User: What shape does this take?
Amino acid sequence: MLLMEYNFNAIEKKWQQQWNDTKAYQVPNNSSKPKYYVLDMFPYPSGAGLHVGHPLGYIASDIFSRYKRLKGFNVLHPMGYDAFGLPAEQYALEHGVHPAVSTEQNINNFRAQLDKIGFCYDWDREVNTSKPEYYKWTQKIFLDLYNSYFCNTQQKARPIAELIAKYETSGSKHFTAAEWQAFSAAEKEEWLMKRRLAFSAYGEVNWCEALGTVLANDEVVNGVSERGGHPVIKKKMRQWYLRITAYADRLLEGLNRVDFSDSMKEMQRNWIGRSEGAEIDFAIKGSDQKLKVYTTRPDTIFGVDFMVIAPELELVNQIKSAEQAEAVDNYVAYVKSRSDRERQAEVKQITGCFTGGYAINPFNGVEIPIYIAEYVLAGYGTGAIMAVPCGDERDFKFAQHFNIPITNIIGQHFNGQEANPTKDAVLENSGFLNGLLMKDAIAVANDKLEELGIGKRKVNYKMRDAGFSRQRYWGEPFPILWNDGVPTAMPESALPLTLPHVEKYGPGPEGEGPLANIAEWVNTPEGKRETSTMPGYAGSSWYFLRYMDPHNEAEFCNRAVSDYWNQVDLYVGGTEHAVGHLLYSRMWTKVLYDLGYIGFDEPFKKLLNQGMIQGSSRFVYRINGTNKFVSKGLLDANEEYNGQKIDKIHADVNFVDGYELDIEAFKKWRNGEYAQAEFILEDGSLYSPTGGQGAYICGAEVEKMSKSKFNTVNPDDLVQKFGADTFRMYEMFLGPVEVSKPWDTKGIEGVHRFLKKMWRLYFDEVKGLQVTQDVPTADELKVLHKTIKKVEEDIERFSFNTVVSALMVCVNELNDLKCRKAAILEPLAILLAPYAPHMAAELYSALGHTDSVLDAAFPVFNPAHVLESTKEYPVSVNGKLRTTLILPADADQVAAEAATLANEVVQKWLEGKTPKKFIFVKGRMINVVM
RNA sequence: GCCCAGAUGGCGGAAUUGGUAGACGCGCUAGACUCAAAAUCUGGUUCUCGCAAGGGAGUGCAGGUUCGAUUCCUGUUCUGGGCACCA
Assistant: This one.
């Protein structure tokens, strides 16, 4: 009995213990082996714990790490926690539990769940962004950002001290050295703030007056607060920002040097949104003010029929006419209640308001009405556009809606029914641009604008500087002190500035963060502390560096150590971080590189995106107003039962077997909420606990996996029931890692059966180990080497699901061959090791090894074993497959043609005619065209 | 609305450079073993016509390129992700 059957519980416990005891996953910072760094996007430790969707990427990266180790690499594969964030604070608000306490509990829970799956993390390197030992360095990097500026000539970050020195000796284009020296501290700081990489400025936030607090976009639903449904408006507040726009071009350029998917690069490029155009100053009728617009199409300037400016611009108040003032004010108030998203999304419903003001076209003197409209955002370009309805669909619809006459500058290219955004039309009605092709006219128009001094070429970015402060408690405090509105940085020696303990998590006065309520913390002899905290992405922008040197108390990461580990070779995570986290961490890396802390300026060499695992929800159907449930098949096409309305209710997937409801479990669910319910089964009979064969069939839908939909599946239960090895393999077997797919627990038994079947190649349940030392046959070697090739190629291209299939095929074939030979089974155990490390270790040691399977050598493919002397060709006639033909592997076209035409099936389809064409692709196929 | 991605049997998926569509697994089904059940094993399983041999159709939808298209191109529908304070 002992170890003869596949006792996964005992095996997994034994090897996890052993690997723990021997520190088998500990990774040294120096090694004669080549290095390889495999990183997962670390998790936010949510209170809901892990569901089966979370480990998908972790398992993929774990397999790859183990594979690389077998291939002889020194592999860094760490794990940690992105532990600051809003949910813990929300939980604190609702339940009074301190975020530090709930976060620690959640981390312990996560850790226990992760450990069961058998990952090869070096836990000695664990990081936790909410620990002072960690955020000390987040604060230090913030100070570096604060104390640096982006030098436009060198195109890199430099210490701000260099800029100050320059100002002192030679001034700038805005002031002389003498003027600088005469500035007050506040005036100096005002100038420096314009250059610092981390800077303070005013920006808009979601403000909820009723709650007295700033809300995250997440907390605002349809313009009102999620909690309480109070109105939310935009309000200006002092914020911290990171000057990521300074790095826009380098962030674009760096994309050419990293291995991300094209779509991921595309998303980042679109986010950065670089465009080349012109800024043009329009005179405003009856005013000295200028209206500055940004356009990528200066060639269309004679087609401008109206201007649109962002409602929040100060200019609006200066140009609105007396008659339009009320309408303008009402519209501005309306826009204040709208989110940026809403403002751009609802194109069908056109809104806007005429200001009563006019701009003057500099080339023909035409008066152009100025409108305000929500679709123009203040944050992009100059916050004002020149609208050309014949060339832009949104402008066209706007013009139609407000009955603005449309000027056609592209002749027959414009049909009056819709705009035509072409650049290939010849311009008409366009003064000095007449007769030019639009794409040629752009440069001509730009030259003219610059010559006349009313405009200039300008590169614009859609990307804005990143908001870096939150009016929250659970984040890194800023090492900043304020005196009379002037910030000063704390010295690095004073770090970490630890987060003080609070009892209440509500907002401070004026909507500041909760820290503002602690007077003794805020007020110091050196000044008032900054009361906002850093956002979630602060700690995650550099964590991959801390893993390299996690215990260093003198620096965030030693240069020699980061030189050794260098870039992350493989980074695994979801596409939802495409533009946020990935851009921020790329920017931080570039800054740290510019300042000489590290020797590379792109953090992630290769990015692998894992898809989302969706939930497969199950529904039960209650007849409306009763406590009676009806099986799915009894519902009619309108989802009604005998004309009665039904309530569709989520049932917990964990007590539905396939589609069949476990009625007794359902009755006990939710404290017996449905204990008294009656059930009409699929066969129409009424359920009774004692009799009957009938079943209650549930409905099913694919939805996001979420607690509220009762479709989450906990990995712990599956590991308990089938073992970690089965669980790991099944997660991979589900489909390609990159693709989203629904979870269905049902199939896990197939993978489990496969592992048992493989086990029985080595062990007989009665006789024990059955492996022999006999010399393998050619067939057996062919099966093995075919598998080695497939497994290696597929892991290298991250096709983990097909590796599982290949191993299944291999075991099936060896089983058919009744192969029991160590020469075959030992390499096979090593092939299995990255996927099912526990079972592989057990098999490997059973074969007599005292060394660890973790450090075995990956089997080497030998093509000699898989050579074929013949090839079965598919033979098509007119592209339709009609038969197959076995030919020698080295057969040439002449031989193939002779054999094909002699074939009786081919002759039948040729009906005695001579084929027009004979296509032969060696090693592939034959096609006869007639 | 804008950006990105996806769609193949009852289900998850395979087909790596345009070359035998449906590997592998689930489910279903027939059988073996068993007093019975579980476990295990063997066979079948895209749809359709046919007793069979053998045809026909088929990779969201509509077109196109090609000797040949799941794969390339154009258009279109639906689904998922992101859109700047969720992480």
